[in-house]
Amino acid sequence: MDKKPVIAPKGRQQPRVKIEDVARKANVSPATVSRVLNHPDIVRPELRDRVMRHINDLAYTRDSAARALKSGRMRTVGVIVPTLALGIFAEGVEALQNRLSESGYTLFIANSQYDQRREFQELQSLIERGIDGIVLVGASHGRELRSLIEQAGVPVITTYVAKAGGGIPAIGIDNESATREMTEYLLRLGHVRFGAIANVVAASNDRSRARLEGIQRALSDAGLPLKPTQTVKADYSLAQGRSALRQLLTDHPDTTAVICTTDTLAIGAMAEARKMGLAVPATLSITGFDDVELAAQMDPPLTTVSVPAAEIGRGAADYLINAIAGSPVPRSVVLPYRLVMRSSSAPPRPNFRPARRGRSRDH
Amino acid sequence: MDKKPVIAPKGRQQPRVKIEDVARKANVSPATVSRVLNHPDIVRPELRDRVMRHINDLAYTRDSAARALKSGRMRTVGVIVPTLALGIFAEGVEALQNRLSESGYTLFIANSQYDQRREFQELQSLIERGIDGIVLVGASHGRELRSLIEQAGVPVITTYVAKAGGGIPAIGIDNESATREMTEYLLRLGHVRFGAIANVVAASNDRSRARLEGIQRALSDAGLPLKPTQTVKADYSLAQGRSALRQLLTDHPDTTAVICTTDTLAIGAMAEARKMGLAVPATLSITGFDDVELAAQMDPPLTTVSVPAAEIGRGAADYLINAIAGSPVPRSVVLPYRLVMRSSSAPPRPNFRPARRGRSRDH
DNA sequence: CCTAACTCTGAAATCGATTTCAGAAATCGA
DNA sequence: TCGATTTCTGAAATCGATTTCAGAGTTAGG
């Protein structure tokens, strides 16, 4: 007689209430229930309330699959980051998610481990899922990835960089310019013997590559081009920062300033410097990039570049929300970075000093 | 007259290739194409290859909405973490995502900012999305949240804790036992004047609360119960670790061991200790919890408890995949933590030393 | 009081893939 | 060679919500 199983064997206990159930209870058609939910203003208030009551009574929620199928919109956005282990990305993703959530979107997350092939696969999976928008990191993507995006016709934005090729809009900072400024600052302090530690091992890490280029350019412009051995490549671990510094100082013991493309590397370098008995900044100035929470708490506090990760995340969310809605969107957004001068950097020891306007500290 | 806009204003350019298109090209029925994709083994190899070729030619991908509608499975899992800013959660989420991805699942991510109301809202949104499984953090959840889960009939698992109430399975470590062991270790070293710094400000942070209880229990058992002023409550920031230590030492200048419920707090405490001119571990032993990457790189390296975050993430993924498939699943999984003794902890200065078997270091 | 102009609601088609059911083709044994 | 299995494929129903189209009901104007 009654069709409801007394107790479902294992799976869903209730067969899930559907729009038709609500319609029957409320003595209206499914169409009306749908209207109540989607266009409340075109339903007679009295009727609307009655239907609403039954919706609540039955705790009805519409099936998003059916909804998506009919409407063609999933109300879903995907993001692919290299890794979540880096606070800078975690922060951006968190901001992204928060903003999307406010607008009724949900965020799919995936990570590529700095591997372009994996990025492509994850993107494929996301597109199959019917996402309405996609957030990427950086400008270096395979061409097949770009064509996949284009073919799918999904709005996309790439983050943490100021511009990306292939007509993809970007939101982020000008990485090269940031390290260029940082390098110029160190030059002004009077440094002449530089070293760079860059996590450019991963092919897709164009942020660090741009940062390295910023360093190189500034130094070339100053007539102090970096020799290959003055640049140590690393991945993004703290331990690599340590070994990189060791190697750098082995090759160039007289280095007075080390510029790292990441705070993690810089913190590793500082740890190693301490272990080697080198005073920072008296003997060696060290700078980082990202301004992670720890940077300010180091001893000495780390000079670095602050990246507005949360703002990038929010901006990416806003961009996609607008793009999906068909609203006009900016081509690209360049956000300001901020050089944070702390005490891990100082003029070099008064030795040979071609400083233009460096003030000596411990004269 | 004609309803189709000549050129889509902005959105999808191609009408998206559907299964029927593939079927027509390949001269088979949609059913066969579907079978090729879902049960390749029941289709004649020759035919299967032919269909496959056309699938690739047309770059066909099935519409997940339609798929989900028909099958009732979204192949989607949701996770709600307090925050991604903590490496320990980011690591777990990353492992979770990787494992899910291997099995064709996609991960929805949301964060609660340690707010139970927000957690509930995010869960609601995820459930409306039709997720097949949900991952939570910790055991403290509102009862309405639990009933929502139950009513939705969605498999759930909670993480980073050894057990949770309300019949919810858990995968994680025994937090209380871990700090109890840590405290006992410090007792064995000969410490008698303890302090604790715990991030128990957020009501929902039962991990840190359990850790604090572990400390308290061990000390009570040793006849050295912690006074209220020997416990400083904090949130999860590094800066709070600093101020907490300062406050602790203001109230109890003779403290010789400080146990923190988080590495972040411990690192903050170490920074402050250094600033105050206190030698670690000679004057003050400090311990943390989580074993973040930085812990090992500190000076001195931090004694802490290693939490298998990646394993937790993977385990949660496996649990849900099985639960969704209807396979038998374990009730709960308790993973081993690992006490990592590094040099931030040592016997107290030879002062008054009731050590049972502490070896003196600098005799 | 009757028709015109609206407003509101319901029936039914639709989105795209999956799967049951049954029939066609192929394989096998006699 | 013929019928009995077995294997494989296709037609059609189905998942649940949305939305068009048209008709029912209501109000207003003449």
UniProtKB/TrEMBL annotation, chains A, B:
**Key words, A-Z:** DNA-binding, Transcription, Transcription regulation
Task: Write down the CDD domains for this protein, in alphabetical order.
Answer: HTH_LacI, PBP1_LacI-like
Q: Where is the HTH lacI-type domain?
A: 17-71
What GO MF terms are annotated? DNA-binding transcription factor activity; transcription cis-regulatory region binding
Which residue ranges does UniProt annotate as crossing the membrane? none
Cross-referenced PROSITE patterns: HTH_LACI_1, HTH_LACI_2
- The protein here is known as Substrate-binding domain-containing protein
| Source species | Bradyrhizobium cajani
